[in-house]
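Why do we bother with holo predictions? Because pocket geometry can differ from the apo form. Keep that in mind while you read this record for zinc ion.
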Amino acid sequence: MAKKNENARIRREIEQILYEEGAMTRARMSSILHERGNYRSLPSDSSLTSLLAKNSQIVQVGTEKVDMGDGVKNKNIVYDIDREMIRSEEDLIFTRPYSSMSESEKKRATHCPTCRQKRLMKDRYDECLVCSRKGLY
Ligand SMILES: [Zn+2]
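The structure, written out:
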């Protein structure tokens, strides 16, 4: 499998984990990915940071103080799926950025007439789920 596809698969896995398990830090995400362990290579800490930060489906919901020992406390960012936008498991697919799509999803994706992003559309004549949900914020 090409590296690009492997990354997209990890992106989808991260979305699914956040959706199912709820808000968590990068360290927790890393350990869950490790437990599931069905990857050629797990993302490094810095690439996991960018996978979490550069996905429009994921939001930062706060910070958690983590004791690093010696009384040193680090603030770790807590991430969650954007629950305003994503309300059911099916919504994950319809709000998915092109970079997270599988090959078969990419083939079915069309341009949203409102935001011009390539998305899987529930109805190809309507706007994408991201646009329709954002209109309601
Ligand atoms: Zn749109």
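The first strand starts at residue 24 and ends at 25.
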